[in-house]
Amino acid sequence: MSELSLFPDIDEKKVCALVVKELKIYKALKVRQQNKMELEKNGVSENIFPKLLEKDKENQLKVLHMERALNKSLDSTERQIIEMKYLSPERQNDINIYMELGLQKTPYYEKKKAAIFQIASSLGMI
Question: What pLDDT is stored for residue 6 in this prediction?
Fold first, then answer.
C-alpha cells in the first residue's frame, strides 16, 4: 500500500534549498526596503550607491509575498523556527533553537519541514 502525500515526487532537499535561498534574499530585500525608506525620509530621491539592476517593483512584491507567507501560512511555532534559523542576524543551530523553544528534536524537525513546505506552497514554488 503506497503512502499518500500532499506533495508526491518532490525532492525535499531541493525545496528546502530553494526556500532557504529565497529567505536569505528576503532578508536582504527587507534591509534594502528600510534603506530606501530612510533615504526618502531624509529627502534623498536617488540611490546613494551604484545600481546595476532596476527591479524595485519585483523586489517590493517579493518582500510583500514572503511576509504574507510567513505571517498567514505558518503557525506561531513554525514562524519562530524560521525567524530564528534563517532571519536572525546570527546564524543559530537547530539544537539551540529547539532547546530555546522547549521542543523535542523530532517535533522540531517536523515543524521546520512543515514550515518550509508551507512557505514553498504559499509562494507557488510547489
Answer: 58
